[in-house]
């Protein structure tokens, strides 16, 4: 807990609003009081503290059982879990990450069971406070993610955290769904120290750029190495700040007319999107090589667009635009 206190100034300097920590295994009185004290400190600095909790591990601590041999279907497990969540909410904790919920339905991994369990958890949370945020991962491969993520099912978590890889066709399909229909997804992205020396030249900066126009939260994996970068962009912190500013300006405006363009070139990912009264154009190079794109073949009025964001800094849109390694560009026509 002390290490987290030491990082508060760092968190305050970053363009983030929520910090997640994992719940400790030793749930004694001192640990819990330290946790509540940390939550108050975060709140005073306009930061939200999110707690990652394994409900079966909680039952192990509270009931003295081996959670690996227990099922969340057991009434005693549910009662202990919900009582503990009630205790945390009453003491001011407002955000929870339940991790990959497969562990809660391991004895009966079906679509119906996952949805029923999610509704049960969130029904109890919402009864404690309508502003409580719930997050989960979902790796279960059979369930219809598109219905869940676009809000057409009874899967009641506030957000589902998913890794994103725009280099994969299936991920781009999911991204298209969330742009067209909204939803409750929180895309997860992170950087490794060995790859963060020059932000512009790593594919994660392209992924970040491609997600900027979504009206949904981003989940950034924590690492101090994020800030050890050089190149056209001075720091990941600065770039995230630019992204956050754009997202805030466009927040809650309707997204419509999403079209993927340059479909036949597998080295390029590009789309157009209308947000409010403005038209946006994203172009991304999915490779490490330089690519020359004749944008006039796809966007007739390309000269009316101006650069909004780019992971290589300032660019001007021209008829034949040269995209550098993993370069991502967002242009806007007002």
From TrEMBL:
Domain of life: Bacteria
Gene3D superfamilies for the chain: Golgi alpha-mannosidase II
Natural source organism: Anaerococcus prevotii ACS-065-V-Col13
InterPro entries, per database record: Glyco_hydro_b
Name this protein carries in UniProt: Uncharacterized protein
